[in-house]
Write a structure and sequence with these properties.
Largest sheet: none
Number of domains: 1
CATH architecture: Up-down Bundle
Helix content: over 70%
Oligomer: single chain
Radius of gyration: 23 Å
CATH class: Mainly Alpha
CATH topology: de novo design (two linked rop proteins)
Shape: rod-shaped
Order of helices and strands: HHHHHH
């Protein structure tokens, strides 16, 4: 009788471990998918930047420093290794600030603001920023669920044995990134 009880407990523990392991695998895959969504949106934005810079260049040739900053920050964001969430967040945050400055500079040029090409690029950029925000929210939500499961007892035991680890959130690197850019002309 004791053997059956012990065997039953072993089977229950094994079933629990299997269920938790499968849940962790699912959460990890959701986090990977969410990161892929962010990556796609950031790539779309990076592809839009040269067109935006070229359009502004034609109207605001003396704003060379701002334009060069945007190009440099785009290259730096593209050079961040794929798995470095914190590094990518920091680089993309800096690029967002530079793009904000570029848009603020454009306000000083009525011909540029009236350009159909610029208005279209500006709308595309605004739409992309909204998509990035939604993708970032989804990613952070899936990371929250994964981290909660990885760090909660007793699932933390299965997570440790299975090699699951907590992930970093995709966050603004500082309060300055949330502020509107200040531009003086």
């Amino acid at each position: 009788m004791v053997i059956w009880v012990v065997a039953g407990l072993v089977v229950l523990v094994a079933l629990y471990a299997i269920v938790v392991f499968n849940r962790l695998v699912g959460l990890r895959q959701m986090a990977n998918e969410a990161w892929s969504g962010i990556d796609v949106q950031l790539k779309r934005r990076a592809d839009l930047v040269p067109n935006l810079v070229d359009t502004v260049k034609g109207y605001a040739a003396h704003e060379r420093t701002t334009l060069e900053d945007v190009v440099t920050l785009r290259q730096q964001a593209g050079a961040v290794p794929p798995g470095d969430v914190a590094g990518r967040a920091q680089a993309e945050g800096a690029l967002s600030l530079a793009l904000g400055k570029l848009m603020a500079v454009a306000e000083a040029y009525p011909d540029l603001k009236a350009s159909a090409n610029f208005l279209d690029l500006q709308k595309q950029l605004a739409d992309l920023e909204n998509e990035i925000q939604m993708a970032r929210r989804y990613y952070n939500g899936t990371v929250r669920n994964l981290n909660t499961t990885v760090q909660s007892f007793p699932s933390s035991i299965v997570a440790g044995i299975g090699g699951f680890a907590a992930r970093s959130y995709f966050e603004l690197s500082g309060p300055g990134e949330a502020a509107a850019p200040q531009v003086t002309l």
